[in-house]
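Shape is hard to put into words, and the shape of a protein is harder than most. The fold becomes a row of whole numbers, each drawn from a learned catalogue of backbone shapes. The outcome of that step, for a single protein, is printed below.
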Amino acid sequence: MRNPCVAHRGWSGRAPENTLAAISLAMEEKHLYWIEIDVQLSKDNVPVVIHDYSVTRTTNAMGEVRAYTAAQLQRLDAGEWYSDSYKGEPVPTLDQVLALTCGRCRLNVELKTDGRYPELANEVLKLIYQYGLQHDVVITSFYMPILQEVRELSPEIAVGLIIDGWRDTLIDELKELKADFLSLGYRHLNAQRLQALRAASIRTMLWTLNDVRTIKKYAAMDPEIMICTNYPEKWREAILPKKKS
């Protein structure tokens, strides 16, 4: 499949982001093999799937994620903010997500940290190995130190830097990390940079492309570019051949 689709926080254009509902919906898309999720730690060091450091935007509570135990987070409502039909959808644990997706879909696991979770890498890797998924995930983060920690703890797991920009040293940094993946804000890719990434054997995922025209534009640059989107149906329209009537 050219230009693989990565469902951003699950099918977040149709269901509340980073919930089992959004992930399940993405898994129903016939040609979708990748889902991106965000992982942090609860107060009791359980990996949980949520984007913001605060629960305020996507649940019915307030405060930092790390102020709640995993059991408390599970009792929050992470769906009603999006739609009444998703009322009662909990903040899932990474364990629950892996149990749901294992053997069915690959995951881009973003580690959400700025250094605030010293045990994040270790706890996430424990679960990945428990499910035997070390070859079916890529671990990504904006925070380079945690990627270095993952690389030291597990040389076999793919890692990638997330960046919404570009710098001349970027490819050298990725090589030093032994990273073969880059998660890049799509506006920062051009032909010259793509050529350099190809030469370095670094696979590129672009985010977040949410309209057909933009998806087509960047997909045309290289069939190997991964397309991260909130709307897999728009990826389908842009990439998949139309059925003849």
User: Anything to note?
Assistant: The chain has a mean pLDDT of 97. DSSP finds nine helices and nine strands in the chain. The chain has one domain: 5-42+104-239. The longest helix spans residues 120-130.
